Amino acid sequence: MSSTPIGDHALISDCRSVALVDRAGSVEWLCWPRLDAPSVFGRLLDPAAGHWSITPVDGAAAQRRYIDRTMVLETTFGTPTGTAVLTDALMTGPGERGHQLGHRSPGLLVRRVTATSGRVELAFDLAPRPEYGLVTPIATLLDGGVRLQGGPNVMVLSAPLPIEIVDGRVSARFTVAAGESLCFGLHHARTDGTPPRVWTQRELHRRLDGTVTTWRSWSRLHQRYEGPWRDLVHHSGRVLQALTVASTGAIVAAATTSLPESVGGARNWDYRFSWVRDASFTVDALWVAACPDEADAFFEYMSAAAAAQIRSGGKLQIMFGIGGEHDLTERELPHLAGWRDSRPVRIGNGAWDQRQLDVYGELLNAAARLPEIVERCPADTKRFMADLADAAAARWTETDQGIWEIRGEPRHFLYSKLMCWVAADRAIALADLLNASDRVERWKEVRDEIADAIVTRGWSDAAQAFTQAFDSDELDASALMLSIVGLVDPRDPRMLATMDAIEERLTDSRGLVYRYLAADGLAGAEGTFLLCTFWLAQARALAGQVEGATAVFERAASYLNDVGLLAEEVEPETGELLGNFPQAFSHIGLVNAAWAISQAGDDGV
Length: 605
Description:
Elements: E1 9-13, E2 18-22, E3 26-31, E4 39-41, E5 51-56, E6 61-66, E7 73-78, E8 82-90, E9 108-127, H1 130-133, E10 138-142, E11 145-150, E12 153-158, E13 164-166, E14 169-177, E15 181-188, H2 201-222, H3 230-242, E16 274-275, H4 279-289, H5 292-311, E17 319-320, E18 331-332, E19 346-347, H6 359-369, H7 371-375, H8 379-395, H9 414-430, H10 440-457, E20 459-460, E21 465-466, H11 481-484, H12 493-505, E22 528-529, H13 530-542, H14 546-557, E23 569-570, E24 577-578, H15 584-602
Antiparallel strand pairs: 1-2, 2-3, 3-4, 3-5, 5-9, 6-7, 7-8, 8-9, 9-14, 9-15, 10-11, 11-12, 12-15, 13-14, 16-17, 18-19, 20-21, 22-23, 23-24
Helix pairs in contact: 3-4, 3-15, 4-5, 4-6, 4-15, 6-8, 6-9, 8-9, 9-10, 13-14, 13-15, 14-15
C-alpha cells in the first residue's frame, strides 16, 4: 500500500512533465513524455508502479526547500556521519530565459548529490515501470549508464558509478565526502524523435545550474506583486507555471490522478486536464502572480480549443486535454491499489461531457480581463465569443450539473445562473471589440432577467443566505461568487448574511469551508476545500472586512506544506492534505484572496 502522506511530496517541472519527490528522496510520480501520459514512476498509487530513490543508508533527518525563486528542489539529509544535499530538477532547455521557460525541455531528470560535511553513504534504487506499472523495462549496460526500454518508452540513465541490474531495477551504494558532488540523469526519448543518451558529469552539472538560472530569470521578469504575503503569492505563481504546458499554454488542474477526497474512498478523479471553469479564476491569478504573457497563452489555448469544438458543431464542453483534445473518456486501472487503498484509480474524466452552463461566463470573464487580446483576435474568434453570450442567454433557464460536477440529477444551480449573467454582462462590456453592438439590447434584457431570478429564487429566508440552487435551503460555497463577480454588492446585507452563514454552518472545527454538505449522488464524504476557504477571505475583503478576511486567509494558508504546496482538500479530523496535488485551484484561490485583501487595505478600509 502506498501510504506516504500527500503533503510529504514536492513538485518539480519542466513545463512539459512534472514529478513528485517525497521527503525520503524518492521520485514517486513522473509521467513522460508529457504530464498526462502514463506514469513511468507511479509508486504514489501502488508500491509496484515504479520509483527512483536516492536515500542515506543510515537514518537521516530531512529538510527541504526550493532554491530561491525556482522550482528546483533541495533536500538536506543530516546523518550520524555527515550531511548531504540532494538537488532535483527536470531540465529546462539550453539558454532558455524569461518567456521561453519550458519550450525546449529535453525530457531529462537530473539528481545531484553533494556532501557538505563528513561522509554520507547513500543507496541508489531506480525501478521505472512504464504504463502505470504494467511494464518492466529491459535494461542494457552502456558506457557510463544504462539503457531502459519498455514498449515505446526508451530511457537512458547516466550514472558515474558501478551499478547492479536485476529485473529492470538498477541499484548501487556509494559514498560522498565533504566537497564531493555526483550527478545522475534520466533521459527520456522526446516525442520529436530525439533519442536519449548518456550525459557527462560536466553536462549534467551545467544543465542543472542552467535550470536554476532559467527559473530565476522567469521569476525576475514575471513577478511584480508587492502586497501582503508577497512570497506566498510569488511561489504560487511559480506553481501555476509548473503546472503549465509551455507548448500549448494549457494549465492543468493538478499534477496527479486519483489522490482521494477521503482516505479509502472512491471519489478519485484524474485532474491532469484543463477546465473551462478555471479560466476566469486562472487569468485573474496569473495577472497578479505572473505576467500577462502567461494569462494570454492560457486564454488563447482555451478559446482555441472551445472555438474549434463549436465550429465543428459540438456543444461547449467543460474541459479539454492539454493539447486541446476533446475526448477524455474515463476508465479504471484495477491493477493499481491506489493511495492508501483508495480505489478505483481512474484515468480520463467522465465529467468531460457533462452539461455545465457556467462555461460561457467563465470564458467571457477571462476575455474581459484581457481586452487587448480580444482586440487582436481574428473575426471568427470574436464571433465565437459573442455566440457564447447568445448561448448563455438562450440556455440559462436549463438545468445542469453545476460547478462541482455533481453526478446526480441536474438542477437549477445558482452558480450556473450566475455565470450566465456574467456571460451577458461581460459581452456587453466587450461588444465593440466583438463587433456585436447589435446584440447588446438582447444581452441587457437577459442580464436583468437572470439577476432578478437569482436574487429572488436564489435567496432563502430559512437559510438566511443565497443557496446552492433555486428554491433550496442548502448552503454552497459557490454563492460567495455573487459578490466576487459583481452581481451583488459585497456590502449588501444578504451577501453579508451569506458569508456569516457559510462561516458558521459550512465549516469544520478548524474553520475551513466545505463546498457543500448536501447529497450529490456519490457515495462517501469529502474534506474541506481550500479554494472555498480562500473565496470566503476574498469575499470578506471585498466587503471591507479586512481583519476577518486576513484571519480566514491565514487559516487556509497554514495548510501549505513545508515547500509551500497545497492540495485540493483538508481532512476535517486530522488536518491532513487530501486530493490531487498540488492543486492549481487552491493556489489560484490564495493569489486572488491575497490580492483582494491587498486592494482593500490600499483603499484604507
